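On to my pick:
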Amino acid sequence: QVQLVESGGGLVQAGGSLRLSCAASSDTRDVAGMGVAWFRQAPGMAREFVACINWNGASTSYVDSVKGRFTISRDNAKDTVYLQMNSLKPEDTAVYLCAQHRLYADACSRTIGEYLYWGQGTQVTVSS
């Protein structure tokens, strides 16, 4: 069974930065070998796509609202995917969850239904 764990959330002032980490473990599939995405869910809001990255980092994608501020990356030697968040805004406040694509290592998809394994999330709170 794949297990995903997010870390790095916290409380920051507007304009500040956080770096989230997502680590996964599996006997046959892991973060190093699969497409991974970050989603977020704010109180009273639907879960939304934030960013994705394929197995080797050659393909990345971002929701428009975070372009130029967030960077997704991966260190396969550490079996970890990161989300560097700069210039944070109060509207970035949400629980951030990482997810592993259900099938394709080369996938970088915005579609929530294509992801099978999810972490429990890490809270990001941005104060004004």
User: Anything to note?
Assistant: The chain has a mean pLDDT of 92. Residues 94 and 103 are 27 Å apart (CA to CA).
